[in-house]
Amino acid sequence: MTILVEIPDNKESFALEVLRSLKFVKKAEVAEQDEPELLKDIREAVHNLNLVKKGKMEAKPARELLDEL
To answer: What is the domain extent for residue 19?
Structure first.
């Protein structure tokens, strides 16, 4: 079983120490944060939206986007 726990940055080392001291914990590590990737995707979406508004890029109809899923 995997459990995700969010803790303050200043408590990271203490929390890892506690988790690693428990015999039943198989793996305790800091997961990569997805926020930078999310921010990159949002910036790209805003950039593309601005291009569409300026007429430099053609928008896809919503139905076409849904059909791709």
So the answer is: 9-67
Helix (H, G, I), strand (E, B) or coil at 52: helix
Classify residue 28: in a domain, yes or no: yes
Distance CA 50, CA 36 (A): 21
* Euclidean distance between CA atoms 48 and 50, whole angstroms: 5
Token pair listed for 52: 């569409």
Q: Is residue 27 part of a domain?
A: yes
| pLDDT, tens only, 45-61 | 999 999 999 999 999 88
Residues 8-48 have pLDDT tens digits of: 989 999 999 999 999 999 988 887 766 677 888 899 999 99
Residue 2, domain member (yes or no)? no
Residues 6+ apart with CB under 8 A from 28: 16, 19, 20
